[in-house]
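Hello again,

I reread your note about wanting to compare the complex against the isolated chains. To keep things tidy I'm splitting this into two emails, and this first one only covers the full assembly. Below are the input lines as submitted, including protein chains and any nucleic acid or small-molecule components. They are followed by the predicted structure of everything together. The single-chain runs will come separately.
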Amino acid sequence: MSIDKIRVQVTGIEQVAPLIREFQLKAVDAELMPFSPGSHVVVEMPDTPRPHRNAYSLLSDPRDGGCYRIAVRLQEHSRGGSRYMHEQVKVGDELWITPPANLFSPLWQASKHILIAGGVGITPFMSYLPELEREGAHYELHYLYRGKQTGAYREQLQQSLGERCFLYDADAGARCDLRELLSDQPRGSHAYICGPQSLIAGVQEVAAELGWPASYIHFEAFAAPQPGNPFEVELSRSGRTLKVAADTSLLEALEEADVPVTSLCRGGVCGQCLTPVVSGDIEHRDEFLTAAEREKGNCMMPCVSRAAGKRLVLDL
Amino acid sequence: MRMSPKPIQSFRDDFTYSNSPGAIARFPFPFPEDEYMYSVNIEPHVTPGPEGSVYEHLLDIDEHYLSEMHERDLVLKENPKRCLAMPHMDLACWDMIDRVMTCFAADYPEHFSLEREGDHWTWENKLLNIKDSFTFGDSSTLPMPPMEYIGRQVQGDFALLDQRDGDLFLDAGIVTCPADWSLAFDAGMSFKEWHGPVPLAHGMGVFDRALKYLCAISQGRPVRRLNWTLTINARMDTSPETYPQWGTDRASVTPDNVGEKVHLRVELQVLDRMSRSNALMFSIRTYLISMNDLVTNPEWAKRMHRVMKSLPPELIEYKGLTRYHPMLVEWLSRFDPAN
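Full-complex prediction:
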């Protein structure tokens, strides 16, 4: 029952906001499996010279195994993935995805769920909502966006959630007062944030001031490797040397050279791609390693982290 | 199943349990090196594994199927609390039903079949003469609670771990053949709490690393590890609840009966992510082999001696071997040419 990848066909594409496209995916050979709210898949795009692999939240109803839906925001500084999805992918095309994984699931014991979405960060909450409804859970959604770029699904959300839906269109001058939002929430409320780092940090800061326990705040950042300086990497076991370009992650460079490294989230969160380092200074950019582990300098997460200098030697 | 199930044998009282030559050949011998080393030793459980091996399918069933299901029934009748599921684990229990039935029907079609029409499922288990139709997800349509219903049809102990905030909680399970741990005692505990008693490993950061790894297991990518201990007599149920019945067994080992009394007990542990609930299914499949049967393989005999001889005192104590360990090493030494 081990499943490495699932072949899917794009059965529908819809522009759901000025910069966001939704893709409907159906399995080619089998049935898609049900998933849990907050799950994501990694989509592999067969671009040249190298494929792109980006993680996207599933936004369909978790109990619906007929079709998965994802939404992709065109990134201004796209490393190729979002641009490929927007410009190359057509209805009828085939893509490969991983089975769903979940690093952002709701805590069912919460007395109330406060969902805070920024822009395309609405996507994981789209799979929360049907389950929250089925559970009869107490919840509210705060959706921050720029109407000229994002804001997908806001009309349908407002219609179905009614007064539990709060919309803030920055392009129309609407601002969300986080202090007001987080004050006077019932004891045992949990907050979930998906959006840019600035939104996550903002909520964390206000919540801490108001005395929320840190364990009541859950977040998922947009996980994508950021470009950096090019460097060389030597593989001590095989003696090979690879070049890592400025806009390529170390993990991508290893994959391109057919060096097997297990990976999952590709955003420095899950820890699957942990790789031993023999020598060289590391620029750690992940959320996984502890400060003590970083200090030792003997391992790194190649999905996001890079060399601090010109060269790294890996125990591969 | 390459091996047909044998008639019921016992894991108590007269201990009629025995392994056929085929079962001995596929026994998951757990020691890759002469010296015993503590490690996390988790690896991907890629299926199908080697044909006929215990790794061929996600969940292994073998010639002891009927015996183990009979033993489970005896344990549950004595103490129904050996099976439990907290209310929030209902969906996870149904995930487990889905996984077990779907895999069994595909992997052992001569014994099991599953028909699905939407939420209307019909399940047949020919080995236990069970045929039931039910509505998937509706526990009132099963003859008993979902964990007990499926647990009574699958070899090995099962726990369902709820994942919350980067930790795992033991919130449901059916545990009738444990190596000295109790579901009722560990229920609701977090990962580190239920590993509290394990010596040596804490200082090594083994549990922090393992927990992060387990939390990131995704659907379709199960992992496995082997664990081991020794058990006196072919006793499946060595639980704290029944300690008065087996605790004194250790005193019954003599130099003359080591070969028949002492059993290597190996657990094939598999962790598999559940679809709808995001729970982790933890299956603990126990294999027992007497020293007499084990030494029929000269490589295993030699290695067993070396591993037992080099075992750290903390582990001898933790695994409860203190009383007969020297006798066992002495008995095994005759199979090691180095002596």
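For quick reference: The first helix of chain A runs from residue 81 to 87.

B.
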